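Lab notebook, bench 4. Still working through the backlog of constructs that have no structural model yet. Next entry is a single chain of 261 residues. Request: give me the structure tokens for it.
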Amino acid sequence: MDRSAEFRRWKAQCLSKADLSRKGSVDEDVVELVQLLNGREEFFTTSSCAGRVILLDGGINGFEVQKQNCCWLLVTHKPCVKDDVIVALKKANGDATLKFEPFVLHVQCRQLQDAQILHSVAIDSGFRNSGITVGKRGKTMLAVRSTHGLEVPLSHKGKLMVTEEYIDFLLKIANQKMEENKKRIERFYNCLQHALENEAVTNSYPREKIKEQKKSSYSPKKKRNPEKAHGRCVTEENDKELENDDDDDPGVSVIIFPEDY
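Model written out:
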């Protein structure tokens, strides 16, 4: 079976499966983005989360929280209010931790160059912790991630360790991060549309024409316009806004997985 046929089989199998997430459906803020990607023959999404505020009740033997071994006291994909957290904290018996988890998206791509287009869009949109992994069987995955999360312990062995005033302060920070997260998702969606349109135009041009245009437009002293770069979608406002975004290295990471991946 050739790679394209195998990719189509993987896509059909993935999209036909039931949604096994806790919510059981795609989050409202990323529905259009997921539909856009799944509507393209070169991509399909394997998992996504629009971003959320959660309160977890972990074990009492340490502060490390393992989500699969803890109780979910509260989860919301919308701005959170103090009263909801206070009520949820009354149910805690162990070490309760308040977390904000930003948008995350996993996309399987038909080939590496398709993943590189998405990676470029993700970086330009503020998701600086994004990366590509390539398996030996040819599976090429893109993870869209950022690092503007939040994780703060609130109680120990069921006893509240902070004041309500501090909880209110934390929620203001979490809600601000939620708002910024939503802006980045919108930016990613708009930039992705722009990049895919550019890719379609490029593919429709004869290669000889593209080479001629490149030769005629090349100038080593001319500063590159970021809006015209392949797969780029950067406005002056967005460019300044992203200057102080995540400090992590935006480079592509390629990992080779075992045969059974």
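Notes after review: The chain is about 40% helix and 20% strand. Residues 216-231, 234-253, 255-261 have pLDDT under 50 and may be disordered. Flag for follow-up if needed.
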